[in-house]
Amino acid sequence: MLHKDNISIKNKRVIALFLLSVFFLSCFEGKKEPTTIGSSELTTTVTEPVSRDLTEIKQSGVLRMITSYSSGAYFLYRGIQVGFEYEMLKEFARKNDLALEVVIPGENENPYDLLNSGAGDIIAANYTITPEREEIVSFTRPYNLVNQIIVVSDELGFQPESITDLGGIPITIRRNSSYYLELKELQDQGFDIQINLVSEEMDTETLLFQVASGNYVATVADDNIFYASNKYMRGLVKGPVISERDEIAWAIRKNGSDLEARLNRFLYQHFKYDENGVPKRSTFLNVLRKKYYEGSSQIADYFNPELQTTQFGAISPYDSLIQTVADEFGLDWVMLTAIAAQESKFDPYSESWAGAVGIMQVLPRFSEVPKDSLYIPEHSIREGARIINEHLDHYSYLDSTNQWQLALATYNAGMGHVADARRLSIDQNKNPNEWSTVSESLLKLMQRRYYQHARYGFCRGIETVRYVNEIMNRYNTYQAILALAETRSMPPGVFGIKTLN
Asked: Looking at residue 2, what is its pLDDT?
């Protein structure tokens, strides 16, 4: 449930480091034993997927993306949600009129269980298609090809050029990674391969950092992850390729045939093979690849530890200011941050077509602050907080979740349109205090037979419904990231961020 009380954040410096770094190392113990399914040793407890295909997803209006907090999949950049996987799936959601919700597995949570239990709808985390994984989930058509390469520390003193050069070198990987099968196959072929298994919490980027730091001698990584990590890590040496043209795809439930078909149509527009087996990528996909994997100095700078804590807060550039203002009004600072991200992407000079300005997109005609002052972050945030607080007070008799949802809708559409929607809900013998019914009425106010009788007329309800849903989803994602940082709290500079490959 949501409350107006401000959420205290312990160990702020550690959280900031966590959110703004992907390569911190970590070692975790005490994981449960894997449950064997067929020949698989992938940890899973939910063996039968729930019935939630494209029809149910469309009815809810939300596609839930299970992913990891990493430089390639998903991360926060100045409070804005970005990442290769996120942007690609966001485009699919947009084309299918869906909001995209991010689900980050928590401590001891399993992506496959989250998927098959219905907590998420798709795993988008740079997954290689493997026979073990196909026993548990289905895969879409591929959207990328990668090579698996050995990566060694420069402290080794030489660059391995072939598999035979790896003799006597311990290669550190996770059992559940796609790399394990390749190394086992090389062992079966008679190569002298030493496998050092570590906790499943040790993701690819964390292992690369440990290799760069000299804590491990060697590991395995997909070439796209290696090239991205090599921009902000020092001490990595590229070794031989052990697997070529591995296909990367999204994982979905085995009974999600309609979702799979829709995803495949989308992916075919962006990635396909020509008659010679050469991959052809769309302009959109090539832009994403360049942005996150091939040549973005901006992303490399973002993950540079020397630039992080002095430039950014835990979530946004205005964390400290937002927390101060939230304390003044007794508001939840994480929610206030989610609103600012939705309204302006934290751009203090943002202006809307309707004349709203500043970080909180306040309409000057409804503000107690002069327009010029609304471009000043402190004034905009404080004025936005004042307005949202008034709306919360107006709905103070509701439970906290519906209180926030209706307050957000009012902040976006105005008191009049929300009042019309609530009256329409009453006319249809539905509860005007439930966001689920009010949101339906807001959508109806786009139809002439309903808005012609409304006091405030036509309302573009779909924008308001999306606005509320996206803020609530962003709020939940921010909370999940902060909670993950709290549960893994340790000395500054020591963090592991789960990135499955």
From this structure: 58
Which amino acid type is present at position 290? K
| Chain segment 221-274, per-residue pLDDT in tens | 999 889 888 877 889 999 999 999 999 999 999 999 999 999 999 999 999 999
User: 360: which 2 tokens?
Assistant: 């909180």
- Top CATH class of 145-246 equals alpha beta
Find the distance separating the first CA and the last CA of the chain, reported in whole Å.
Answer: 33
Contact between residue 261 and residue 58 where contact means Cβ atoms under 8 Å apart: no
Give the pLDDT confidence of 382-399 residue by residue, as tens digits: 999 999 999 999 999 999
The helix (run of H) or strand (run of E) holding residue 128 is strand 122-128
Asked if residue 47 lies in contact with residue 116, where contact means CB atoms within 8 angstroms, the answer is yes
Integer Cα distance of 206 and 412 in angstroms:
41
* Maximum alpha-carbon separation in the chain: 80
User: Would you say 256 and 54 are in contact if contact means Cβ atoms under 8 Å apart?
Assistant: yes
CATH class of 319-474: mainly alpha
Predicted pLDDT at 300: 47
Q: Which residues 6+ apart lie within 8 Å of 67 measured at CB?
A: 73, 74, 83, 85, 86, 102, 103, 104, 123, 124, 125
What is the Cα–Cα distance from 147 to 334, expressed in whole angstroms?
40
Q: Where in the chain is the domain with CATH 1.10.530.10?
A: 319-474
CA 206 to chain centre: 18
Helix axes 333-344, 319-329, angle to 10 degrees: 120
The rounded distance, in Å, linking the Cα atoms of 370 and 111 is 49
Task: Give the global pTM.
Answer: 0.73
Where does CATH 3.40.190.10 sit in the chain? 12-144+248-307, 145-246
- Radius of gyration (Cα) for the chain, nearest Å? 24
- Number of neighbouring beta carbons within 10 Å of residue 476: 17
- Residue 388 CA, distance from chain mean position: 26
CATH no., domain 12-144+248-307: 3.40.190.10
DSSP character at residue 294:
I
Q: How far apart are CA 238 and CA 226, in angstroms?
A: 8
Residue 40 DSSP one-character state: B
Who contacts 476 (Cβ-Cβ below 8 Å, separation ≥6)? 101
The strand pair at 236-252 and 122-128 is best described as: antiparallel
Among the listed residues 389, 371, 391, the one whose alpha carbon sits nearest the alpha carbon of residue 380? 371
Q: Which residue from 319, 375, 360 is spatially nearest to 78, judged by alpha carbons?
A: 319
Residues of the chain with pLDDT under 70: 1-42, 78, 295-313, 484-501
